[in-house]
Amino acid sequence: MAEVITMLEELGDTAPLTAESVAARFAAQGWTPGGKVRDGVETSWDKNAVGGWIQTLGDGAVRVSFFVWFRDVDASGYFDDVDAVYEEGEQALADFLPEIEGSPLIARLVEAEQTEADRDEFIKLKKWIFGGRILTAGVIQQDTDLPVMVMVVLEAPDPA
């Protein structure tokens, strides 16, 4: 997961954080474009089995997401034992967190309070403030027939 740590270090010094500036950092770090261009910018990137996405939100803010662990649904289109898959995801998150906390990033991270919205979106998570942005690492499943993933998300804080 060194790829994610390196990208976060790069993005922590990127201002302003735009889709174009993030795409340039992905390219400079040797990530492979995934062929998902939006508004003239490549939004999907891969490196060493880690996926990265750039999403521009309605207010112009940019969210950069990485998946560092992925478990797809069973042949039935669901998980036979979703609790066991959540436990696998929680263990993968527990294995990944020391990489963040043991990296040079930790000197720039301030632990942040989890909100109700965070707990609605993530099964389990850890959240920090990173250079005025929100950095979240957590286990997520966006719908019952979608994969369970360990995601790392960097985004501007909600202005509200």
- Principal-axes geometry comes out as globular
Radius of gyration, in angstroms, nearest whole number: 15 Å
Uncertain spans: none
Measure the end-to-end span: 33 Å
Biggest beta sheet summary: 8 strands, antiparallel
Provide the residue-averaged pLDDT: 91
Strand order of the largest sheet: 1-4-5-6-10-9-8-7
Element string (H = helix, E = strand): HHEEEEEEHEHEEE
Name the helicity range.
Answer: 25-40%
Helix-and-strand structural type = alpha+beta
Per DSSP, the total helix count is 4
How many β-strand runs? 10
Q: Classify the beta-strand content into a percent band.
A: 25-35%
Describe this structure in words.
The chain has 160 residues and is of the alpha+beta class. The protein is built from 4 helices and 10 strands, in the order ααββββββαβαβββ. The protein has helices at residues 2-12, 19-28, 82-101, 116-121, and strands at 32-33, 37-38, 41-42, 44-47, 50-56, 62-71, 109-111, 122-130, 133-140, 148-155. The protein has an 8-stranded antiparallel β-sheet. The longest helix has 20 residues, at 82-101. The radius of gyration is 15 Å and the shape is globular. The termini are far apart.
